[in-house]
Write a structure and sequence with these properties.
The structure holds two protein chains of two kinds. Chain A is α/β, with parallel strands linked by helices. Chain A is built from twelve helices and 15 strands. The chains are: A alpha/beta, B alpha/beta.
């Protein structure tokens, strides 16, 4: 076996040193009845060639987004990732190291995390950020639980244009951790005003910008309403690239920003692993979940980095920890950091402008198709269309023509009639003029 | 005082003697923060000018610059290459971090995870266009079910701790369905910190069960603690002392008799994979860290994946989405209705850590059922070899055989003035990543070593010789030299107390820099 260096001679020598007759003898503490004496009924070992062939066969059964004209978004976006990103994250020193518990031999990971935290704080307009969460949805749930701790209240109001996966993940936590959720109905037109709902029991209001249906909104007034009532405003961002162009949540008065960072540096990968971003105000930092890198000095007075504020964490606080999270999304956060470093302010802004311009062009084109209505006055790179018939079969038909035409809202609300003909469409810098023409033409034909 | 100790002492006092003009030390190159390399007008990407359009932002355009620094590609590549060189990794050498399973990460798995048919797949594409991806998930599920003997598996959890949450939520949901309000969860003192944190996050109170003098759960004490208000026991097996809970069948029986569930923390499944099926031990529920047992890379702290295998009694409560197979092919059940009516809800976005699934399945198929059996055998053999060879110089906490990791405590350092921390830092200077220190908490000054099965015997022999020599030096009264370690690292010991007292968690422009910018 190519990954196992011990030879039979090694094993014999080692068993002699141990004073055991066989490897099996080392398992003597396992109840006899539970010890298997032969390999389980699964395939036997394979060489690289066979494994590669078997998995490539499965991969070939899928329609890779890059092989089509792809307009899918809804929380996961296909962006161009510079080649240097994947090269650098595959360096063994990053790829095959553990959480940086021994800072003297982990300065690389720690400094990169410190840079990540700074980038996240800068783009969200917040004061501090942690070293990442699993993904945007879990980041959202953790934000709500943090708001509960900060306010010592137990009710969260979730906007109707919050991503349904984020709503459902947060609701699951609410059920088990015992807090209240007021989840508003889906709000494709973004008309819902949440300010009147905020009361003295409200820990936080959770809104998304751009919203699940694409609308871009200013939440400054809502933030004031929250603060007057002693509640926090949590702003969710599922498309991190929007922060290059849209007024950041920090400037709207957000107390916590929970976001999905996949758009920067990370491939689609069928939905995971991705990377949750989490930022807040300095005064709440001791209630923040997750790992945090901090600056310090070594015994020679040189600047260095360590994991810090670990007294919040489970390995110290056990059942009193702020969260049970431990492993986060380190390598995805590194990919984010490297891509963001390559972009810089100029590149990040241009990337966002390019996305917006493509979306505006696409929206105009599609809205001109008979039987299609654009729901949005405002949007960044994603918008909602109302079709003259159910969206799911339209998407299926267009997939047959090599166009991944967006996400039908019925995928999330299969039982709601009012969602049946809604289609959520995203455009990014990767879409060409030909892609857009193919989409418009295909839609025209399918809706005829 | 030996030459070693004198030399180190001198080094410790006169750091200046080692200074260079640049501050670099050969291959150890000082690297500033990205933000300190900023030059306006630089970028590492070339993107076309956006076509002119009337914007649809509703007046909500960002007012000022983000403050992100501008660098070209060569600068970025050099920056992160230099940072990488300040890390120790499995690729650099033995990484005997107990309980973390730092084994070789095969590169084939990286290659396969990047196939466009997996990596360039949107989670919300029409189901007809992702049949191969669902087949891969189904195949992984099959392997996990056969290896554990359990009938169901929940694949969405993103890490071990997330898997714990999933498992304990399943247990709460099952109790709710039974109409029972059980509030207490029993957790051994030696458990990972995530266990009590998870139980608390699921609304349970935590009650610690003591260990016996053999480093295992005290069965008599457990029986006393069991009662009608106990929801579950959370037990790691093999446990964090590196020992198999040899009374596990009696534990399972007692727990079930009390009407409670048996949650197993499967962080150490790598010790028994292919040789023991958790189902045969009476376990109801167990998470598996794909990044430990099945060698998906740790990545400096994730991403991981923590699938949870479930007994029939818990399967109905598994989180969404569910993967089902019918005559039309594979499909996802994404709502709590129909077959999944009792599902506890969703735990994260989308369908799970697909990138990790591809890597784990490639690992499993490479080893096969015969190779996986060899994996656990060699892992246990390597750990027992360390126990046998180091037992005379260090103090083993418990007699062997151990499983995949071996626990020593600091009795061998008694009176030397050297602590477990000092000993670990001295190992760094010898070119090794230290073992896990001060965990588990049940012994004093713990040193927990896990060599894994991917370490050759000659590598272990070298490590053993170094550890023995260090132990002898500690006993020879060279504490000062230990306290000066590490010396050959990019940074020496760091002030963690200061970091926590006055947290600096991000870069900010200096006052001078801000003025210049203005």
């Amino acid at each position: 076996m190519r990954y196992l260096p011990l030879t039979d001679a090694d094993r014999a020598e080692m068993l002699a040193a141990i004073g055991a007759d066989s490897v099996e003898a080392l398992f003597r503490d396992v109840p006899r009845s539970a010890r298997l004496d032969r390999p389980l009924d699964l395939p036997r070992a394979m060489g690289e060639i066979e494994v590669e062939r078997a998995l490539a066969r499965m991969a070939a059964k899928n329609m890779a987004a890059g092989a089509a004209a792809s307009f899918l978004g809804a929380g996961v976006y296909r962006h161009h990732v510079p080649a240097a990103v994947d090269h650098l994250i595959q360096r063994g020193e990053f790829l095959t190291s553990y959480t940086p518990y021994q800072p003297e031999v982990s300065q690389g990971t720690l400094q990169a995390l410190f840079e990540f935290q700074t980038q996240v704080a800068l783009i969200t307009g917040m004061e501090v950020a942690n070293a990442s969460m699993y993904d945007g949805a879990t980041s959202c749930a953790e934000a709500v639980m943090m708001a509960n701790r900060v306010t010592r209240r137990h009710k969260a109001i979730l906007a109707g244009d919050l991503h349904p996966h984020y709503r459902e993940t947060t609701t699951t936590h609410a059920r088990f951790a015992g807090f209240e959720i007021v989840a508003r109905d889906p709000d494709p037109a973004a008309r819902d005003d949440l300010a009147p709902l905020v009361d003295g029991d409200t820990a936080c209001v959770v809104v998304q910008n751009p919203g699940f249906f694409g609308h871009v909104r200013d939440f400054s007034v809502l933030a004031e309403a929250c603060h007057r009532a002693g509640a926090l405003l949590v702003v969710i961002v599922t498309e991190a690239v929007s922060l290059g162009l849209v007024k950041p949540p920090g400037e709207m008065g957000a107390d916590i920003v929970a976001a999905e960072g996949q758009s920067v540096g990370n491939p689609l990968t069928f939905g995971g692993p991705h990377v949750g971003l989490f930022a807040t105000r300095e005064k709440f930092v001791r209630q923040m979940p997750g790992r945090i890198a901090g600056q310090t000095v070594d015994v020679e007075g040189r600047r260095g980095w360590v994991l810090t504020l670990s007294t919040r964490e489970q390995h110290i606080r056990r059942e009193k920890a702020t969260s049970n999270i431990c492993t986060n999304s380190g390598l995805c956060a590194l990919a984010f950091t490297i891509h963001m470093a390559l972009l810089g302010d100029a590149g990040f802004t241009r990337l966002a402008e390019l996305n917006h311009a493509h979306a505006v062009m696409l929206a105009e084109r599609l809205a001109a198709v008979p039987g299609v209505a654009l729901l949005n006055d405002t949007f960044f790179n994603e918008f909602a269309l109302r079709l003259k018939r159910p969206a799911a079969p339209v998407v299926e038909a267009l997939a047959g023509r090599g166009v991944l035409a967006g996400v039908p809202a019925s995928r999330f609300w299969p039982d709601r009639k009012d969602m049946e003909d809604l289609l959520i469409v995203a455009a990014t810098e990767t879409n060409t003029e030909e892609d857009m023409a193919a989409f418009a033409q295909g839609l025209r034909e399918v809706l005829r | 005082m030996s030459e070693w100790s004198q030399a180190i002492g001198a080094f410790g006092r006169q750091a200046a003697a080692a200074e260079t003009i640049s501050g670099n030390r050969g291959l150890m190159i000082e690297e500033p923060l990205l933000f300190e390399r900023d030059q306006a007008g630089r970028s590492g990407v070339d993107l076309p000018a956006p076509p002119p359009v009337a914007d649809r932002l509703g007046g909500l355009r960002r007012a000022g610059p983000t403050g992100l620094p501008g660098l070209s590609e060569p600068q970025v590549v050099r920056h992160f290459t230099r940072l990488s060189q300040k890390n120790y990794a499995i690729d650099s050498g033995l990484y005997p971090l107990g309980s973390c399973t730092m084994k070789h990460n095969p590169r084939l798995n990286e290659k396969l995870a990047r196939l466009p048919g997996f990596a360039d797949l949107h989670p919300l594409q029409p189901i007809s266009t992702v049949q191969g991806a669902l087949e891969l998930i189904d195949t992984l599920a099959h392997w996990l079910k056969v290896l554990t003997g359990m009938p169901a598996v929940a694949l969405s959890p993103a890490a071990g701790a997330h898997g714990e949450l999933c498992g304990m939520m399943c247990i709460r949901a099952a109790l709710d369905a039974r109409g029972e309000k059980r509030t207490r969860v029993l957790v051994p003192e030696s458990a990972h910190g995530t266990n009590p944190a998870t139980a608390a996050a699921c609304g349970f109170t935590v009650d610690a069960i003591p260990a016996n003098d053999r480093g295992r759960v005290d069965l008599a004490a457990l029986k006393v603690k069991l009662g009608p208000d106990v929801a579950a026991i959370m037990l790691t097996n093999p446990n964090t002392c590196g020992l198999f809970e040899d009374e596990i069948s009696a534990i399972a029986e007692a727990v079930h008799e009390a009407g409670a569930y048996f949650y197993c923390d499967g962080a150490n499944f790598n010790a028994i994979v292919g040789r023991v099926r958790p189902a045969d031990l009476g376990i109801d529920c167990m998470h598996i860290n794909l990044h430990k047992t099945f060698s998906t890379p740790h990545g400096g702290g994730g991403p991981g994946a923590g699938p949870v295998v479930l007994a029939q009694s818990l399967a109905a409560f598994a989180p969404l989405p569910w993967l089902v197979h019918d005559q039309t092919g594979f499909r996802l059940v994404e709502q709590a209705q129909g077959v999944a009516a009792q599902a506890l809800g969703r735990l994260k976005g989308n369908h799970g850590q697909m990138g990790m699934f591809v890597r784990a399945l490639a690992y499993m198929m490479s080893h096969g059922s015969d190779g996986l059996r060899q994996v656990s055998g060699d892992a246990v053999l390597n750990a027992n070899y360390l126990l046998a060879e180091l037992g005379d110089d260090l103090t083993a906490s418990f007699p062997g055989p151990c499983m995949h990791e071996v626990l020593f405590d600091d009795r061998f350092l008694e009176g030397t003035g050297v602590t477990t921390l000092d000993f670990a830092k001295a190992l760094i200077d010898e070119g090794y990543h230290p073992m896990t220190m001060y965990f588990p908490l049940v012994v004093h000054g713990a040193l927990l070593m896990e060599p894994t099965e991917t370490e050759p015997k000659e590598g272990l022999d070298r490590f053993i010789a170094v550890v023995k020599a260090l132990a002898q030096r500690a006993k020879a009264g060279e504490a000062a030299a230990f306290r000066a370690a590490p010396r050959f690292t990019p940074r020496r010991r760091l002030d963690e107390t200061g970091a926590a007292r006055k947290p600096v968690l991000r870069w900010r422009p200096s006052a001078a820099g801000r003025e210049a910018a203005e």
